[in-house]
Design a protein that fits this description.
By secondary structure, the protein is of the alpha+beta class. It contains 18 helices and seven strands. Helix 3 runs antiparallel to helix 5 and helix 16 packs across helix 17.
């Protein structure tokens, strides 16, 4: 009688290619294969699929790290876990993390349309020497993140998703958090909580897709370990009043001063302002066309007289494709070029630590909200959602609400 549940029984087996099988329950078998007398032997699980009549097998490993007397119990437990996985509708074949990531990228390619550009947005990118082809679709962005932050760990990439553990993902998250950023204007700097959230989001989405598609029957491994950090994009508290903004502008070089003034006049992201060309400004209508930025949509801003005059002066004598607010050498601003001049101006103006070009956007939005402008309009001209305005600036509506309630008094 073939016995694989004892050390003595396994030692008595004749080495061969075909496994020796032991039935654990109807349709469920545990197998043991030893190719040579000197090898530890490997364990295999096999289950009968009642719907197809097929008998898929699943390699369990050698369990060589355990004493001989404990290997059967460990193999039996692993086999029963796989049987439970199949019983819940799980996939019979092993799916590695590498495959999980590749499937997600293909999913994005099939479901996410390629980004398209309006004529204004195309003109904006042309001024920076770029074309529509330079836009990175969501699928390619995800693929790049996986290659850099997930698949660079060969052991993790080769791991079966069904064998993924919270400890493995906790280690991955800590490693990612300790890794300096590798792109953008903050390249080489400490990864912020919001950056960590964005890098984790792709991986979490890939794992969730595998779970939804039945490649794994539980999301327990990552459910608690890949949660986004709360308040990573919390309400921004650093605010510059108008006097501080004037000092900021005064202490900056002439070309940077114009750029900072533009950020003080409109609630635009620095990148959106830097991307504006002369062709985006309609002097006759006093309208500024803001192309696709983080919000992913174009918008028209009707400018007040003083603001229109500022942009009219900036546009004077320039071709339509030229940057509206250019550097001294005529090129458009970007994160790398404005980073150090901004830091120098912040220090010279003795502004609070942490002040950046983006602080001006926050300050102008704060003034608009505190001034009573409805949140929908603030969101539209700022190029963001009402939800984001409420989340970051809703607290400023307190005084506006109090004034409105005061008017109800009889």
């Amino acid at each position: 009688m073939t016995k694989i549940d004892t050390v003595r029984g396994r030692d008595a087996l004749t080495p061969r290619r075909d496994p020796y099988w032991l039935r654990l329950s109807p349709g469920c078998y545990l197998g043991f294969r030893r190719m040579t007398a000197a090898s530890a032997g490997t364990w295999i699980a096999r289950a009968l699929d009642d719907n197809t009549g097929k008998k898929p097998a699943h390699a369990l490993g050698e369990f060589a790290e355990l004493p001989d007397s404990q290997r059967y119990s460990a193999a039996k437990a692993a086999a029963e876990t796989w049987f439970t996985h199949l019983g819940k509708g799980g996939c019979a074949t092993a799916t590695t993390i590498k495959v999980v990531c590749e499937r997600y990228v293909e999913h994005l390619r099939a479901t996410k349309p390629k980004t398209t550009l309006t004529p204004y947005a195309l003109a904006r990118r042309s001024a920076k020497g770029k074309t529509a082809a330079d836009i990175v679709p969501a699928a390619e962005d995800a693929a790049a993140r996986f290659k850099t932050y997930v698949l660079d760990d060969k052991k993790l990439a080769a791991t079966d998703i069904a064998k993924l553990t919270p400890a493995m993902l906790d280690a991955w998250r800590k490693r990612l958090q300790a890794t300096p950023t590798r792109s953008g204007g903050n390249r080489g700097e400490t990864r912020t909580a919001s950056t960590l959230n964005r890098d984790m989001a792709c991986f979490r989405a890939a794992l969730n897709l595998a779970y939804t598609d039945g490649l794994v029957t539980s999301d327990f491994a990552w459910r608690g370990k890949l949660l986004p950090i709360k308040d990573a994009d919390k309400r921004r508290e650093l605010y510059l009043d108008k006097d501080q903004r004037r000092k900021f502008i005064e202490k900056a070089p002439a070309d940077m001063a114009l750029f900072l003034k533009g950020l003080s006049l409109l609630p635009l992201r620095p990148g959106a302002l830097a991307a504006l060309t002369v062709g985006n400004f309609d002097k006759r209508l006093s309208v500024l066309f803001v192309g696709v930025d983080k919000a992913g949509r174009d918008r028209k801003l009707k400018l007040p007289k003083d603001t229109a005059e500022f942009f009219d002066a900036a546009a004077k004598g320039k071709l339509p494709g030229a940057p509206l607010l250019a550097r001294a050498d005529g090129r458009a601003w970007d994160k790398d070029s404005w980073k150090w001049p901004v830091k120098a101006a912040v220090e010279a103006a003795k502004l609070p630590d942490g002040t950046t070009a983006y602080t001006l956007r926050h300050s102008t939005i704060s003034d608009l909200v505190h001034g009573g402008l409805d949140l929908l309009t603030v969101a539209q001209i700022s190029g963001t959602s009402v939800r984001m305005i409420e989340q970051h600036y809703g607290h400023l509506r307190g005084d506006v609400a109090a004034d409105a309630l005061a008017k109800l008094a009889l």
